[in-house]
Design goal:
3 strands; 3-stranded antiparallel sheet; Arc Repressor Mutant, subunit A; mainly alpha
C-alpha cells in the first residue's frame, strides 16, 4: 500500500466516518441539550447500572479524563449523582431522575438518527457496515 495515497488508508476513512456519524447524532440530540457522548453515558447508567468513572470509561471505550469531564457536566446539570460510599472508596455514579427522564426521551432521537443513517446507506450496506465494524479491533471490555 502506498502511503502517498491516503484514499487507501482504513484508519483515515474510519476516523472521518466516525466524526461524520457523531456530528449527525449530535445534531439529532442537540434539541435535548445532549451530545452523543452524554447520551451513551446516561444510557449505560440506565441499562447497566451505576459505576465509577473508570468503570464507565471502560464500558464505553472512552478514556478516564474525558469521561470524568463529561460526568462533571452531567452532575452539574442534575442528570447524574456521584457519591463515595465511604472515604476509602471511589465515587460511584448513578442516574438521577432527571437523567432517567432525559435518556428515555433521547432514545427516540437516537432511533431516528439510526434510521436516517440506515436510509442514507441502504439497509443492506448498513448491515454490512455493522458486520465489518464488529470485526475491527476494539477496546476490551470486562
Amino acid at each position: 500500500m502506498d502511503l502517498r495515497k491516503p484514499k487507501h488508508c482504513i484508519a483515515l476513512h474510519l476516523a472521518s466516518a466516525a466524526k461524520g456519524v457523531t456530528r449527525q447524532l449530535d445534531a439529532a440530540l442537540r434539541p435535548l441539550g445532549l451530545t452523543s457522548a452524554q447520551f451513551f453515558t446516561l444510557n449505560a447508567l440506565d441499562l447497566e447500572g451505576e459505576g465509577t468513572t473508570t468503570d464507565l470509561a471502560q464500558r464505553l471505550g472512552s478514556d478516564r479524563t474525558t469521561m470524568s469531564r463529561n460526568l462533571d457536566l452531567m452532575v452539574r446539570r442534575g442528570w447524574v449523582h456521584r457519591a463515595a460510599p465511604d472515604a476509602t472508596q471511589q465515587r460511584v455514579c448513578s442516574l438521577a431522575p432527571a437523567g432517567a427522564d432525559l435518556v428515555r426521551l433521547a432514545r427516540k432521537a437516537w432511533k431516528q438518527g439510526q434510521a436516517d443513517l440506515t436510509r442514507s446507506l441502504g439497509k443492506s450496506d448498513a448491515k454490512a457496515l455493522i458486520r465489518i465494524l464488529r470485526k475491527l479491533p476494539t477496546i476490551p471490555r470486562d
